[in-house]
UniProtKB/TrEMBL annotation, chain A:
<feature type="domain" description="Transcription regulator PadR N-terminal">
    <location>
        <begin position="18"/>
        <end position="90"/>
    </location>
</feature>
<dbReference type="InterPro" id="IPR052509">
    <property type="entry name" value="Metal_resp_DNA-bind_regulator"/>
</dbReference>
<protein>
    <submittedName>
        <fullName>PadR family transcriptional regulator PadR</fullName>
    </submittedName>
</protein>
<dbReference type="InterPro" id="IPR005149">
    <property type="entry name" value="Tscrpt_reg_PadR_N"/>
</dbReference>
<dbReference type="InterPro" id="IPR036388">
    <property type="entry name" value="WH-like_DNA-bd_sf"/>
</dbReference>
<dbReference type="InterPro" id="IPR036390">
    <property type="entry name" value="WH_DNA-bd_sf"/>
</dbReference>
<dbReference type="Pfam" id="PF03551">
    <property type="entry name" value="PadR"/>
</dbReference>
Automatic annotation (TrEMBL), chain B:
<keyword id="KW-0812">Transmembrane</keyword>
<protein>
    <recommendedName>
        <fullName>DUF2812 domain-containing protein</fullName>
    </recommendedName>
</protein>
<feature type="transmembrane region" description="Helical">
    <location>
        <begin position="180"/>
        <end position="199"/>
    </location>
</feature>
<feature type="transmembrane region" description="Helical">
    <location>
        <begin position="205"/>
        <end position="229"/>
    </location>
</feature>
<keyword id="KW-1133">Transmembrane helix</keyword>
<keyword id="KW-0472">Membrane</keyword>
Length: 112, 238
């Protein structure tokens, strides 16, 4: 039940978290998942992350570039576009407002 | 592991993903798995499902899913038409540089939408968006001083918001009101009259009238030009 609930919360905000994780510079899939896990969001499977990255790329919010590496098979690097930055600012504000409302209601129920 | 990625590559090709993208995707996912460890199916899910989430849909499938329609209306009737077409399942995604509403409709599962237009006041767009968000209004386009908002009718109507058989997209894409034509006609008359007076009258008491009309017409033209260039610039930066 608890895991399902967390997965459901994450589903609603993962695209914003990915955009936010790219504000400091470009990154690739595994490192994005790792940085989100280190932030306390739990392990995010590649099967969850990549469709989100794909949708963000199709929407023009991130740009991807594949680079061949000296060792290994090569990686696709993602960077935030200007459109992605403005979408993050706008949608991030809406999420924060939503979060405030949730906290307010929970506080009335004695949850701090 | 290679069997998984072989199958994924086949499935992606079936969905029309270009060969170069298939190769890069498989290489990237292989590198991901090399770092994360574990089983590919456990990490990414069944290859067929994962390909469906990653790859472009086959042409016939994507055409059936939704259709895009661009249209415009003047500010005297835009809100009325937005709600009229929203009731036919059209969801506005944005307003483009030429002032057209870029909208789409899910042909398999059309839903009703409602719209409202607000003036962006001194407090700014961000404050306006935050003010309306608690009621479920989401911004869907900006046109100069106006911000357009949309809200799915499912929020108020529930299952009744779903459309059974929506009508076909209207044949035309421009909806202008009589008031708009009257305004344009008035501006044109002012422009012509001022030009004629400037040519035929020299000095005297008519100077004030000439100046007034020329100023009105010139001002209208400058305003229209300014609005156009602002829109172009905003579209390029977007």
């Amino acid at each position: 039940m608890s895991a399902d609930r967390r997965a459901s919360w994450l589903k609603g905000v993962l695209d914003l978290l990915v955009l936010a994780s790219l504000t400091e510079g470009e990154n690739y899939g595994y490192e994005i998942a790792k940085s989100l896990a280190e932030s306390g969001l739990g392990q995010i499977k590649g099967g969850t992350l990549y469709p989100v990255l794909n949708r963000l790329e199709e929407a023009g919010l991130v740009a991807a570039e594949f680079r061949v590496t000296e060792r290994g098979p090569g990686r696709r690097y993602y960077r935030l576009t200007e459109q992605g930055r403005s979408t993050l600012a706008e949608q991030g504000d809406l999420w924060v407002a939503f979060d405030r409302s949730v906290r307010s209601v929970l506080a009335k129920g004695g949850i701090q | 592991m290679s069997t998984y990625f072989d199958e994924l590559a086949v499935r992606l090709r079936e969905r029309g993903v270009p060969e170069e993208t298939v190769t890069a995707t498989v290489a990237d996912l292989t590198a991901y798995l090399a770092e994360s460890g574990g089983d590919p199916e456990e990490e990414f899910g069944p290859a067929a499902d994962f390909a469906q989430q990653l790859g472009a849909a086959p042409a016939s499938e994507s055409a059936a899913e939704s259709s895009t329609w661009r249209w415009t209306a003047d500010i005297f009737v835009d809100e009325r038409h937005l709600n009229e077409f929203g009731d036919q399942g059209w969801e506005v995604d944005r307003v483009d540089a030429t002032g057209r509403f870029v909208s789409h409709r899910d042909e398999d599962n059309p839903q009703r939408w409602e719209y409202r237009r607000e003036v962006i006041a001194r407090k700014g767009r961000k404050a306006l968006v935050e003010e309306l968000a608690p009621d479920g209004w989401e911004p869907c386009g900006t046109w100069f001083f106006y911000e357009y908002f949309k809200r799915p009718k499912a929020a108020s109507l529930g299952p009744e918001a779903q459309l059974g058989a929506p009508p076909r997209a209207p044949g035309k894409g421009v909806f202008l009101s009589r008031r708009f034509f009257l305004l344009v006609g008035f501006a044109a008359v002012c422009l012509v009259a001022s030009l004629m007076l400037m040519i035929n009258v020299s000095g005297g008491g008519a100077g004030f009238v000439v100046g007034l009309l020329a100023g009105a017409a010139g001002g209208a033209l400058v305003a229209l030009g300014s609005l156009w260039f602002q829109a172009r610039r905003r579209d390029r930066s977007g």
